[in-house]
Write a structure and sequence with these properties.
Blueprint lengths: L6 H14 L3 E2 L11 H17 L3 E3 L6 E4 L1 H8 L2 H7 L15 H46 L2
Helix pairs in contact: 1-2, 1-3, 3-4
Amino acid sequence: MSDPATIEHTADRLLAAAYKAPPAEIFDQPDTVFADEDTKLSIAKDAADLLVRTRLAKFADDSRTQITLTNAGRYWALHGGYLAYLKDDSATPSGGGGRQRNPEMEALRSEYMKLRLNTFWWSFGLSIAGFVMSLVSVAIAVFYGARLLP
């Protein structure tokens, strides 16, 4: 067998193994050959963490030794594996539900936020003015109250 020394190749193998027989043991991959056992275990763990971090897989047990595929992981296992996932431009998560940011919508959102803040400060200022007028009214009533009554 070939000797893949990269985490990406091991992640590709783990993705295929988890698709064939879920849940896949991350430390029990017979087709990976490394110089020492420590390297094999650390690369297998890093590959599993990479698959979980990219949301292609999730850990199946509390000890984090087995992985099962998510829907996205099954899709990429069918369409070329982890290496095809890396080549695809749209595969990078943007955090916005898969939608790209529209600059026109961003400008409109910024304009509405500015109008909202202006409205807030005007209403805040008018509230303060009304409060000051009520204090002046109370002061007038206290100081001149007896003289203003007929």
